[in-house]
Amino acid sequence: MNDRQKQIVPVDIRRIRQTLDLTMKQMGEQIAIYSQGVPYSPVPETRVSEWEFRHRHIPSYVFTASAKLLLDHWSEDRHMALPARQLDVDVFYGSALNPAFGHMFKLEKEMLKGSSRNHKVLSWLREARVMQQRYLERLLAVRMFYVFAHDMGVDVTADKEKGI
């Protein structure tokens, strides 16, 4: 069994890079910035390629940096979007982070479009989405509260009180 088959990959960094429309060189620069800060030594694009195709073990900081980069873009696009378009933004970026997470947003969007809304099922779906969000936050060592900071029901103060 080779290394490509052995490593558990929490997010697809290639999908994130392509979603953000970045070249491998740009992705290497962003990973370096998000993991090291400024000044930084850029990650060579050949290394990004090796990680994407799993020819080389991917360090955990790469997953965290990639997720943070995606979350920053998500937050910016979501806060610029009209309220009626925010779920579209959530589907797009949520799917890039984790396909199941994005699908939850898609289901929510479809349920909200329907004429006979089952509020109980919608509430369960939202609870499941928040559980998935918390799981991804722990897995990737990131916080997502700022992406949804203006939404009803998102308690940013609870995260701040916990020191997160």
Secondary structure blueprint with pairings:
Elements: H1 3-6, H2 13-19, H3 24-36, H4 45-52, H5 60-80, H6 86-97, H7 99-113, H8 119-140, H9 156-161
Helix pairs in contact: 3-4, 3-5, 5-6, 6-7, 7-8
Written description of the protein model:
- This protein has 164 residues and is mainly alpha-helical.
- The chain is 66% helix and 0% strand.
- It has helices spanning 3-6, 13-19, 24-36, 45-52, 60-80, 86-97, 99-113, 119-140, 156-161.
- The longest helix is centred in the last third of the chain and has 22 residues, at 119-140.
- The radius of gyration is 17 Å and the shape is elongated.
Kindly summarize this structure in a few lines.
The protein has 164 residues and is an all-alpha fold.
Q: What percentage of residues falls in helices of 4 or more residues?
A: 55-70%
Could you state the oligomeric state of the chains shown?
single chain
Strand pairing plus helix content: what structural class?
A: mainly alpha
Q: How would you characterize the largest beta sheet?
A: none
Summarize this structure as a short list of keywords or feature phrases.
164 residues, mainly alpha, disordered C terminus, elongated, 66% helix
